[in-house]
Design goal:
heterodimer; A: alpha+beta; Heat Shock Protein 90; five-stranded mixed sheet; elongated; B: alpha/beta; Rossmann fold; Arc Repressor Mutant, subunit A; 2 domains; six-stranded parallel sheet; 11 helices; 56% helix; transcription regulation (chain B); Sig_transdc_resp-reg_receiver (chain B); DNA-binding (chain B); Response regulator (chain B)
Chain lengths: 402, 210
């Protein structure tokens, strides 16, 4: 007991609170009030539950008595408050009516058979009470609206329920003929379905609407996240390096490219095709050297497993690196064309150019990484350059189309 | 002196372009949406309209439709931040005589405006690439062979533009005059605008989905 108390005090006296019977607002002994507080339900629901259970074999009354005995009375200062007799009378009336109904129809003799109905009723009550007020009123208005709208259907449904119920009760007298009662049960359920169909349909539509709204919100959130992660980030970075124009333009370019890809080229497979690979390589070199690289691609082809195209791409990367590092050109143009089985990539700059004959033999860049690599894989590389005229590297590779 | 009207819904961008344009260009007015653009073009009768593709009220294509539809001879140069195929092809087929993206330098833009004012076409490397791509896909039988395909020479010129060559460099490369290069580009523009290969539009839209 002591343990429980300390626990209760520690956790803000919520989860382990003991059930008490309050004096304030009680109708009989305060049991329903206390239980309602414990279960966070409306006391009216609890009271109706007790009434319902009492009608079924008197179980409610028994439960009430037991709870009364085991739960202590909440300490109360001063005069005990007056009971609300009118409410008590109302609940008694409901109980009496229910009892009369079951007695008249003979259902109370069903014994255990009545229990599911009681449980179902209590469940419905709790559901009703748990639903938020706005939704509850929309249920009610929706139901009444659809009833008004479909008067014929509603009348038909009610008729079916009545016929079914009468039939069910008539058949109840002759228990052996369960088949008849089953049949009537089906009719009852059918009638209920007819009544409830528009309401259920409305509920379904509302659910769909909610779902669509949620998807829209998720998309919005994704856009917001994207803008935050990239654009805002880059803007902040740009402010911090405002003194360095080269870095500013590099950041802006790379952000622009990312945004463009996201806007105009959704779900492009990173490196499945030549065009995609050329774009990626150009983007990487642009990022690391800070020189804008304009890429134009015409036609496309899947990358080949043997690696002829991979070699071409490596040579193209080397050509871009050379142009970015040594030419001094303000921008570089890359043009990749796939025509039938031939892949051609041009890398052009407007920089200072150089004398090809004067390049020493041991310079790996041009001779090895570009020309040598292309020739080893069965392609060709041509370099056109002159001092002051810029440089253009042309790579050609023939592949067999899959 | 070429008289230019700038149509763009971003004020900052309009003043930026104004500041960047060379001395050979006179900016006679600005407009910020379709309505004001149509009015300003009628009022100022500029030589060239710098036209933004994306604007409130229907965008650049709506301006083209209303102005050119009324029989005006004003020339348009489309200027956009987007280089999506459907925007580029759409505005060219709407009647613009050229397309450049907004990251173009001030000097290049001045050249492009002067070229459009003289009645020539202006193709960016990207646009040249799009045209090559669009005319390459020749699965459907063409209705008008003259309009629906490019000549060998036109193809060569476009390819050089896509490779980043200036008109002068193209002329030197192909041993022809700059004037001839311009003629070829104008002829490609005409085919692009008049060809009713439904493939063109379909290609442009499909490209977005790739």
């Amino acid at each position: 007991m002591a343990d429980q108390k300390t626990l209760a005090e520690q956790s803000g006296d919520k989860p382990y609170r003991r059930m008490m019977r309050p004096m304030e607002g009680r109708l009989l002994g305060g049991v329903a009030q206390g239980l309602a507080a414990q279960l966070k339900l409306d006391p009216v629901v609890i009271r109706l539950m007790f009434v319902l259970l009492t009608v079924v074999e008197g179980a409610g009354a028994l439960a009430y008595a037991v709870l009364w005995m085991v739960s202590p009375r909440e300490p109360h200062e001063g005069h005990p408050p007056q009971r609300d007799w009118s409410q008590l009378a109302a609940f008694s009336a409901i109980g009496a009516a229910l009892f009369l109904f079951t007695w008249l129809t003979g259902a109370s003799q069903g014994g255990i058979g009545m229990l599911p109905f009681a449980v179902g009723g209590i469940g419905a009550l709790i559901l009703w009470q748990q639903a938020d007020p706005a939704r509850r009123s929309s249920w009610v208005s929706g139901a009444s609206r659809s009833i008004r709208k479909n008067r014929v259907r509603t009348l038909l449904g009610i008729g079916l329920v009545v016929v079914g119920a009468t039939g069910f009760l008539a058949a109840e007298g002759e228990l052996p003929q369960v088949r008849d009662s089953l049949l009537f049960t089906v009719v009852v359920v059918g009638g209920l379905l007819v009544i409830a169909a528009p309401w259920l349909a409305g509920l379904w539509k509302e659910l769909q609407l909610e779902r669509r709204e949620r998807i829209r919100q998720e998309e919005r959130a994704e856009v917001a996240a994207m803008v935050h992660d990239s654009v805002l980030h880059t803007l902040t970075l740009i402010q911090r390096v405002a003194h360095d124009p080269r870095e500013v333009s590099r950041l802006a370019r790379s952000q622009e490219r990312e945004l463009r890809n996201w806007l105009y080229q959704p779900a492009q497979d990173a490196d499945a095709t030549v065009a995609a690979a050329v774009r990626r390589i150009a983007a990487e070199e642009e990022d690391s050297h800070g020189v804008p690289i304009e890429v134009v691609c015409v036609g496309d082809i899947d990358l080949d497993p043997p690696g002829k195209l991979a070699a071409t791409l490596k040579a193209a990367r080397q050509a871009m690196v050379n142009a970015a590092k040594y030419s001094g050109s303000p921008s570089i143009s890359v043009y990749a064309e796939v025509e039938g089985e031939e892949v051609t990539i041009f890398v052009k700059d407007r920089g200072k150019g150089f004398d090809l004959e004067a390049v020493p033999l041991d310079r790996m860049g041009i001779r090895e990484s570009i020309i040598g690599r292309m020739e080893r894989h069965g392609g060709t590389a041509r370099v056109r350059t002159e001092p002051g005229e810029g440089t253009e590297v042309m790579l050609t590779m023939k592949v067999e189309k899959a | 002196m070429t008289r230019v009207l700038i149509v763009d819904d971003h004020r900052l961008f309009r003043s930026g372009v104004r500041a960047e344009l060379g001395d050979s260009i006179e900016v006679v007015g600005e407009a910020e949406d379709v309505e004001t653009a149509v009015k300003a073009i009628a009022a100022h009768q500029p030589d060239v309209v710098l036209l933004d593709v994306h604007m409130p009220g229907g965008g650049g294509q709506e301006v083209l439709r209303r102005v050119l539809g009324s029989g005006s001879q004003v020339r348009f140069l489309a200027l956009s931040v987007s280089d999506a195929a459907e925007d580029v092809i759409g505005v060219i087929r709407g009647g613009a005589r050229g397309y450049v993206t907004k990251n173009i330098s001030g000097k290049e833009l001045t050249d492009a405006i002067n070229r459009v004012a003289e009645g020539d076409a202006v193709f960016s490397p990207r646009l040249a690439g799009f045209v090559l791509d669009a005319f390459a896909s020749s699965e459907a039988p063409s209705i008008d062979p003259e309009l629906d395909s490019l000549t060998q020479r036109e193809r060569e010129v476009l390819r050089l533009i896509a490779r980043g060559y200036a008109y002068k460099e193209i002329a030197k490369e192909l041993f022809i005059s700059v004037k001839t290069v311009e003629t070829h580009v104008s002829s490609v523009l005409r085919k692009l605008q008049l060809s009713n290969r439904h493939e063109l539009s379909r290609w442009a839209t499909a490209r977005r989905l790739v």
